[in-house]
Amino acid sequence: MSVQTAYDKARAEGRAALVGYLPAGFPTYEGAVETARTMVDAGCDVIEIGLPYSDPMMDGPTIQDAVHQALVGGIRVADVFRTVEAVAATGVPTLVMTYWNPVDHYGVDAFARDLASAGGAGLITPDLTPEEGGAWLEASDARGLDRVFLVALSSTDERIEKITGVCRGFVYAASLMGVTGARSAVDTGAPRLVERTREIIDKGGTSLPVGLGLGVGNGAQAAEVAGFADGVIVGSAFIRRLLDAPDLASGLAGVRELTAELAEGVRAGR
Amino acid sequence: MTIDTARGAVPDATGHFGAFGGRFAPEALMAALDELTREFETAKQDPSFTAELDGLLADYAGRPSLLADAERFSEHAGARVLLKREDLNHTGSHKINNVLGQALLTRRMGKTRVIAETGAGQHGVATATAAALLGLTCTVYMGEVDTERQALNVARMRMLGAEVVPVRTGSRTLKDACNEAFRDWVATVDDTHYCIGSVMGPHPFPMMVRDFQRVIGVEARRQCLELTGALPDAVAACVGGGSNAIGAFHAFVPDESVRLYGFEAGGDGVASGRHAATLVGGSLGVIHGMRTYLLQDGDGQTLETHSISAGLDYPGVGPEHSWLRDSGRAEYREITDAEAMEAFSLLCRSEGIIPAIESAHALAGALKLGPELGRELGRDATIVVCLSGRGDKDMHTAAGFFGLMPEGEGK
């Protein structure tokens, strides 16, 4: 199921979609599945399952810590597919967010096949741009998967046009120049990036949603972002709740509370 | 003429060396990479830029570096070994060639800060040096393991005014320093240039760093003709990321009679799994923005590497080397820690030259190649060895390895 259906549903309800990120295997295989189910239950419209990778070049300390813990715990690519299967079974569209090498090494078509058969919606690829994405464009077409590329504050209009032209599901607008991690304020350039991206999408005559991520960590920020974007993407703030909790049960309670706060935020923003 | 690339057929306009290279980078960096590509292409056609770079290479770095017979070492190698003395450059290695070029480009782009990753510290020292010379702010990322084994270079960088940040993530070596430098860059790209130290990373870095380093081979080719009246039979260099090797090889690539040998860090031997010999023991993948050979596990996770040499302790390799390997134009072999240290000691005692442990891998390679080529050619072969750096920084490691510490300290 394309992620766009979740965006359409939110749009019909006059609100932004809430997209939650969590790496597979963190804090454990079971713990991640349980956390993702909690996020769905408390109001996430889309789940992104991170594929833990040894060299998370674009992640800040919080996601680095979580991913490291997942890898030390022995998480494998096969476990990521199992996680996707368990989360997608909730009925919420489930994407995998991954650096490119694990997909490349698995074989792009084989990865697409196994992701599709796990019920995954598609991929978010933070270090793959359309220029190097030929094999993925083909495989995602063949398997009917979403492909979410990123646009950045530094992207030219020409690049945004090229990127949104090949995105399916939504386009991920990176709200700031930097790595992942919650920030105290949403970058002032973010609304303009979403506006520019949307103008270019409109000109192309499609209804591709624009989700905004990086740095969003609380209900007030979610409301602010919901005021100009179609989706609000949150990652590190969920992980922080788990990292700071003495045990999984209280971590899950924290995640539930945060999800509810964010879900309220995406409804208050319009 | 320093950075003339008229004979280079690769990479293509999007940075691909055949199936290798390219640009696997976050969108946030694409504008900066495009700007850098344009600026480099313009600069190398600009006589004032090339004149300034050539001037710095001559009057600041001390180029051309010597190409000299190593007579007593040659007896052990069973070949005529000519040393390309990059160790005599200012800052003590070939790294200065690239850094001066990138620092000038940084200024040309109106940026005021440079960042760098470093393994052994040679590139960090070179970057800190160029930053001091040109009045740029400088931050160097260095794996914590490397800050310990190359403490002297940490002090050098700090003396030169650079901030040195020990990196405590992952394996705490060179690859993690690269990750951290990329994280810095994506947040600071408006005023900061990432001065990558090897022929690696997303396009245009592998091409640009090669073009700044190819002066090594351009000089060596001319000097060898002057000295011996002929081209060498082989050129040997150590390969971590591979910048001194590409620099030494590039001018010789069209000379089909000249064999090109890259020597990788074999650590305890490739079979042991404790090594950093990417082209000997790796498989195709993507790391740090480029498609290349890579040491990875079945899930595509980067493997931990091992080498006695911090500068070679890296799980990837420049994409042009992958291309030279697969095209058969160059051959890559492993040299173990023990073999490198034996060659290290031999050069000290036979020539009065203390090489960097990185360069000792190339020397060990020459000791193996000499007899092999001699048998094949029916005469003593001539081998140009790129002595990429000097070994002062390695005294702590060497003293430990050879048990030279007083009162039985060390190994």
From TrEMBL, chain A:
Keywords: Amino-acid biosynthesis, Aromatic amino acid biosynthesis, Lyase, Tryptophan biosynthesis. It holds the Pfam family Trp_syntA. Its EC number is 4.2.1.20. CDD domains: Tryptophan_synthase_alpha (cd04724). GO terms for molecular function: tryptophan synthase activity. It comes from the Bacteria. It is an enzyme of class 4 (lyase). GO terms for cellular component: cytosol. The keyword Kinase does not apply. It catalyses: (1S,2R)-1-C-(indol-3-yl)glycerol 3-phosphate + L-serine = D-glyceraldehyde 3-phosphate + L-tryptophan + H2O. The keyword Lyase applies. Pathway: Amino-acid biosynthesis; L-tryptophan biosynthesis; L-tryptophan from chorismate: step 5/5. The active site is at E48 (proton acceptor), D59 (proton acceptor). The alpha subunit is responsible for the aldol cleavage of indoleglycerol phosphate to indole and glyceraldehyde 3-phosphate. Tetramer of two alpha and two beta chains. HAMAP family: Trp_synth_alpha (MF_00131). Belongs to the TrpA family. NCBIfam families: trpA (TIGR00262). This is Tryptophan synthase alpha chain.
Automatic annotation (TrEMBL), chain B:
It is an enzyme of class 4 (lyase). InterPro entries: Trp_synth_b_CS (IPR006653), Trp_synth_beta (IPR006654), Trp_synth_beta/beta-like (IPR023026), TrpB-like_PALP (IPR001926), TrpB-like_PALP_sf (IPR036052). The modification N6-(pyridoxal phosphate)lysine is found at K95. The keyword Amino-acid biosynthesis applies. Its cofactor is pyridoxal 5'-phosphate. The keyword Plastid does not apply. Pathway: Amino-acid biosynthesis; L-tryptophan biosynthesis; L-tryptophan from chorismate: step 5/5. It catalyses: (1S,2R)-1-C-(indol-3-yl)glycerol 3-phosphate + L-serine = D-glyceraldehyde 3-phosphate + L-tryptophan + H2O. Residues 62-389 form the Tryptophan synthase beta chain-like PALP domain. One of its GO terms (molecular function) is tryptophan synthase activity. It comes from the Bacteria. The beta subunit is responsible for the synthesis of L-tryptophan from indole and L-serine. Tetramer of two alpha and two beta chains. PANTHER family: TRYPTOPHAN SYNTHASE, TRYPTOPHAN SYNTHASE-RELATED. This is Tryptophan synthase beta chain. The lineage of its organism: Bacteria, Bacillati, Actinomycetota, Actinomycetes, Streptosporangiales.
